[in-house]
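Board work, copied verbatim: Aminoglycoside phosphotransferase family protein
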Amino acid sequence: MSDEEILSGGNMEPVVRLGDTVRRVAGPWTPAVHDLLVACARAGIASVPRPLGRDDQGREILSYVDGRMMSGLPPGEMWRPELLTSAAILLRRIHDASMPLVASRRPWRQPAREPAEVICHNDFAPYNLVVSNDGSVGAIDFDMASPGSRVWDVAYLAYRLAPFAEDAPGYDVARDGSREARVAALVAAYGGSWAHDDIRAEAACRLDALAAFTDDRAESTGRADFVSHAAMYRRDAARLRRPRSQDPFTEGA
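↓ predict structure ↓
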């Protein structure tokens, strides 16, 4: 349709905006994802999409979450500690709302991981986080959600926002705070009790899985950028497994 706007992202399938709605390819996992979004709505979480059925092409219809993508903010805004803690608080609310769905028999797009405590977003990162005009943080792109542990999502958010990733443009420790302090703030805002080394270890495992997934995507699509992404995830995972005294991303070690 001529009035559809192709949105950024959509690495799995095309995602388009039509008015105040988003349209994307549906699949066997879509009813489970819609259950999750409804659970979020019932918990009073306003900053995630609402499921609105399907269109005449069979695509799912979701409400559009207005705002700016966190990944597109200038560095002085993106790395603000307030956004890090707001994202952690939102993740906790989503996890808590999802708990009744852990035992659901509906299929998810990704396999469940033990311990299955909550429904993980599985890609809770700046490119799926939206910052509204009032500074609150919202989340989109729940298609890869599946049962898993709380720390699985928390560790990936820390990887992206501490940040431990190679591709963290503009992060400035003097302005934005040390990675150790940012991990501590993220865990505290979420309400967890994981130690810094627990987060690093889980993030490394998360990156192993992400690298394998991205390799598969590279093979099926022929996209060279997926190959380079997978290589970065493996480098970052190896670095996170080193003693912190040998990690160039650890300040003051």
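DSSP finds eight helices and ten strands in the chain.
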